[in-house]
Specification:
Belongs to the acetyltransferase family. NAA40 subfamily. Strands 6-7-8-9-10-11-15-12 form an 8-stranded mixed beta sheet, sandwiched between helices. A 3-stranded mixed beta sheet has the order 3-4-5, covered by helices on one side. The chain has about 375 residues and is an alpha+beta fold. Strand 13 (about 350) and strand 14 (about 355) form a beta hairpin. It has 11 helices and 15 strands. The protein folds into 2 domains: about 5-135, no CATH class; about 135-365, Gcn5-related N-acetyltransferase (GNAT) (Aminopeptidase), CATH 3.40.630. Helices cover about 35% and strands about 20% of the residues. The two termini are about 30 Å apart. It binds coenzyme A.
């Protein structure tokens, strides 16, 4: 707690929270309400931090964020802090902004408005924490909790799948795994993990095989590095479809030029438990089924799995992005109940009256009866 002298000093300042609410909930500094400048190092140290280095880091962070945002506002990055904040009076809700993700919400001018928004902000924070907690769960717990085992096997008697083997009936198994498992990021090299690179390469080649042309034709283009970076995102989860007693037919091996690839993989879906705007969503990043195995119900089954996970984890909706030129996939998604989402990009009007059509769209499907109420600014 600050001393009386420091409190007087604080009155010249307003609280400023750096957007680190997930990690610490404590990254707070003050900015002067008129000048918007951060306080001296000594003031920061005397209020919150004993440690020189920590206080210095905090100030640096605040200064650069202030520059970025050209702000004179009071911002609360960690709304939890409000409960222990020495400035918790009605006037301190004036001109307070909450920074959560990239969303800014203006607090009300009166205490009751401020309090109402504070409660909504706390709810938003708890939704955010939920995402973090789900992503921190070890994959074995996550699977046990949110994916029934019967969904991990796919029973199908389609001729296409059966034709992959003459002997025992082939079995389609679907494993849920993390990006670090797929890419062997946490593993020490060992005999067991030596074959790991085959899996990410196989998934990568499959994406390239099915979607390279769409990327190439789009404004964003195709970039190996960028795609791999996205695939390696630590929160990315994979549902990998494997054929246990069968093999990709020869005709399929054209996309798997490299004989080192894993030929038991016949498709996959990748997704992330995340937030879009104000809502908790399961975001489907990729879905690709190898040519030979399309129209066997595998895509439908993968969607059933991911939507089950979305519902079981309490996500508001399931979302995805699709290139507009991929009319087949767009129709397929529509037939699964996906509709254009409100955040899908709209055509951009140019000065001459011409408009630029976005080359992709964002589709979504609501998973819960009622989403949470949005905070109105
Ligand atoms: C889109 C894709 C994932 C679909 O997977 P799939 O395993 O072939 O699809 P399924 O066999 O599960 O689909 C079966 C259902 O879709 C229906 N369907 C098939 N083609 C369809 C189409 N063009 N439009 C609408 N419905 C279609 C089938 O009639 C069937 O309907 P039902 O569930 O009512 O019986 C697959 O075609 C694919 O990998 N495409 C290439 C990669 C790609 O474009 N991915 C999307 C990137 S955004």
């Amino acid at each position: 707690m600050a001393s009386a002298a420091t409190e007087r000093e604080i009155n010249k300042w307003r609280l400023w929270g750096v957007n680190r609410l997930l990690e610490t909930n404590t990254s707070l500094v003050l900015v002067h309400e008129k000048t918007g400048k951060p306080p001296t190092l000594d003031l920061v140290k005397s209020i919150y931090y004993k440690d020189d280095e920590e206080a210095e880091n905090l100030l640096e962070e605040a200064k650069s964020s202030l520059r970025d945002m050209d702000m004179k506002w009071v911002i609360l990055g960690a709304c939890d802090f409000l409960t222990s904040c020495p400035l918790r009076t009605s006037k301190d809700y004036d001109n307070v902004l909450l920074r959560r993700s990239d969303v800014f919400r203006t607090f009300g001018k009166t205490e009751s408005q401020g309090m109402k928004l504070y409660i909504e902000a706390s709810e938003a924070l708890s939704r955010f924490r939920k995402i973090r907690d789900l992503n921190n769960l070890p994959i074995s717990h996550f699977t046990k909790e949110y994916l029934p085992t019967d969904l991990m096997e796919y029973q199908s008697s389609t001729r296409k799948i059966e034709s992959t083997t003459k002997d025992s009936p082939p079995m389609v198994q679907i494993d849920m795994t993390t990006s670090s498992d797929v890419f062997g990021l946490d593993n020490e090299p060992s005999n067991e993990t030596r074959s790991a690179p085959r899996i990410p390469q196989t998934l990568f080649e499959l994406i390239k095989h099915t979607s390279y042309k769409d990327y190439k034709a789009s404004r964003q283009g195709w970039d190996d590095e960028h795609k791999l970076e996205e695939m390696e995102d630590e929160d990315m989860r994979y549902l990998v479809v494997k054929l246990s007693n069968g093999r990709l037919p020869e005709t399929e091996k054209q996309w798997t030029k490299d004989s080192e690839l894993d030929h038991s993989i016949i498709g996959f879906l990748s997704f992330m438990i995340t937030q879009e705007e104000d809502e908790n969503v399961v975001y489907i990043y990729e879905i690709h089924i190898s040519d030979h195995f399309r129209d066997c119900g595998l895509g439908r089954h993968l969607f059933k799995m991911v939507e089950h996970i979305g519902k079981a984890t309490g996500m508001d909706k399931s979302m995805l992005t699709v290139f507009k030129r991929n009319t087949y996939a767009r129709q397929w998604y529509t037939s699964r109940g996906y509709e254009e989402d409100e955040i899908s990009p709209r055509p951009r009007k140019l000065r001459g009256g011409r408009s630029i059509e976005p080359d992709y769209e964002i589709l979504s499907k609501r998973l819960q009866e009622q989403g949470h109420k949005k905070v109105k600014s």
